[in-house]
């Protein structure tokens, strides 16, 4: 099986085009839409500019932390394929899906095994379940082995400060790996060399 990946927190046109046009483009690119605490947050006008790029085979993901009606209305006509939603109840996520007709990545933030079981509440209306740390913009890790007993009958995305040299640990597993901080330089900017190395590593057989 071929490992899939998402590069999150993209905020620069050159970086976005590099990912889309790479020999091994990422299957998903995420944009931080409403979480202003993140250094990767993108203002709405800049977001519109980024999303005007020809995405080719890459899917564009709006990363939303407990979005209110205002932000949902502001982005409803933008070129997003998925909404990745944090901190909403199952009913809230289901309502957003029904109202805006978007595919859903429901984010479950994990600290212990108890947290993981929450995915069942989101399963019926989510295209993908994302298991992430509780660090949000801080690129914190969690114990990925907590996911070992989860069934393979749904699409799973996994985040939590995954490093490029850890990609090999996810080969032959039914995951989409979601990476952000590991692809940035000392100043927190996305680094093309690291992105290149990551995409090649993901696609190694």
Order of helical and strand elements: EHEHEHEHEHEEEH
Beta-strand residue percentage:
15-25%
Low-pLDDT runs:
none
The overall pLDDT average reads 93
CATH class: Alpha Beta
Helix segment tally: 6
CATH topology descriptor = TIM Barrel
Main-sheet strand order equals 1-2-3-4-5-6-7-8
Structural class by helix and strand composition: alpha/beta
Q: Which architecture does the CATH hierarchy give at level 2?
A: Alpha-Beta Barrel
Domain count, please report it.
1
Assign the CATH superfamily. Aldolase class I
- Gyration radius over CA: 16 Å
Major sheet: 8 strands, parallel, barrel
Q: What coarse outline follows from CA principal-axis ratios? A: globular
Distance between the termini: 9 Å
Walk me through the structure.
The protein has 205 residues and is α/β, with parallel strands linked by helices. The chain has one domain (4-202): Aldolase class I (TIM Barrel), CATH 3.20.20. The chain contains 6 helices and 8 strands, in the order E-H-E-H-E-H-E-H-E-H-E-E-E-H. The chain has helices spanning 13-20, 44-51, 69-75, 90-100, 113-116, 192-202, and strands spanning 4-8, 28-32, 59-65, 82-86, 103-110, 128-133, 156-158, 175-179. Strands 1-2-3-4-5-6-7-8 form an 8-stranded parallel beta barrel. Strand 4 (82-86), helix 4 (90-100) and strand 5 form a beta-alpha-beta unit. The chain is globular, with a radius of gyration of 16 Å. The N and C termini lie close together (9 Å).
């Amino acid at each position: 099986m071929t490992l899939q990946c998402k590069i999150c927190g993209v905020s620069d046109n050159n970086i976005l085009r590099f990912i889309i046009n790479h020999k091994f483009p990422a299957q998903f690119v995420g944009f931080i839409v409403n979480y202003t605490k993140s250094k990767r947050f993108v203002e709405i006008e800049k977001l519109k500019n980024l999303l005007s790029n020809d995405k080719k085979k890459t899917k564009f993901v709006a990363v939303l932390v407990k979005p209110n009606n205002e932000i949902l209305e502001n982005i409803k006509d933008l070129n997003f394929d998925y909404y990745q939603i944090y901190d909403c109840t199952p009913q809230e996520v289901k309502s957003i899906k029904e109202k805006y007709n978007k595919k859903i990545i429901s984010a479950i933030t994990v600290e212990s095994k108890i947290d993981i079981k929450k995915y069942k509440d989101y399963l019926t209306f989510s295209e993908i379940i994302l298991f992430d740390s509780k660090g949000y913009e801080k690129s914190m890790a969690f114990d990925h082995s907590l996911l070992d007993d989860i069934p393979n009958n749904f699409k799973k995305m996994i985040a939590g400060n995954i490093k490029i040299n850890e990609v090999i640990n996810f080969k032959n597993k039914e995951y989409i790996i979601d990476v952000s901080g590991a692809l940035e330089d000392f100043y927190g900017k996305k680094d093309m060399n690291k992105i290149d190395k990551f995409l090649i590593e993901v696609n190694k057989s």
